[in-house]
Give the backbone structure.
Amino acid sequence: MASSKDSGLGQLGAMFELRFKHICTMHSKGETEAAETKALELLAEPRLGRLHKAGMHMILATSETDFVHHSPEAVTLFGEALQGEMTACQRASLEYWHAEAEKLLEEARSDQSAIDNEINEKLKSGMTMRQIQDAQLSEMYERLARIGEEEGASAETSTAAASDQDAEVRKFGIERRGRGKALF
């Protein structure tokens, strides 16, 4: 018979598993901002297990911010998990997710390098960091204003606007290739 401490941890683990699956479902449905917020909340849980942490870092590694931090965290956590004893099936699954985390890490490094290069080019052209930041904020506010104006428009118009916005984001080298990708 399990002790009350073991059953409490089992209940806690079950609660973490439910929250984990809910966040993964939200992310796979394209509710990325909400999923990222919930992932950060779950990561703040001090007793969260290694694999749940790794999964949340995988989701956050596809975000537009802090992706460089979350990608290596996922790689490290999956790598640590691979050191333990497990069945062949569990090992195969962990090896798959470890490889996926490594791919996200390479993408994050590549994306960060592109961002850094673009900023350096702008600085070389005479722009100050303040001017670069002001330009980025202006572009963001313009996109948000367009999105607000387009609410209520037909689905066709909204899709075209999203494509235009995606092209703008790519132009500035800040696209996160994994964003919105169903991971789990």
Observations:
- The chain has two domains: 10-111, 112-171.
- The mean pLDDT is 82.
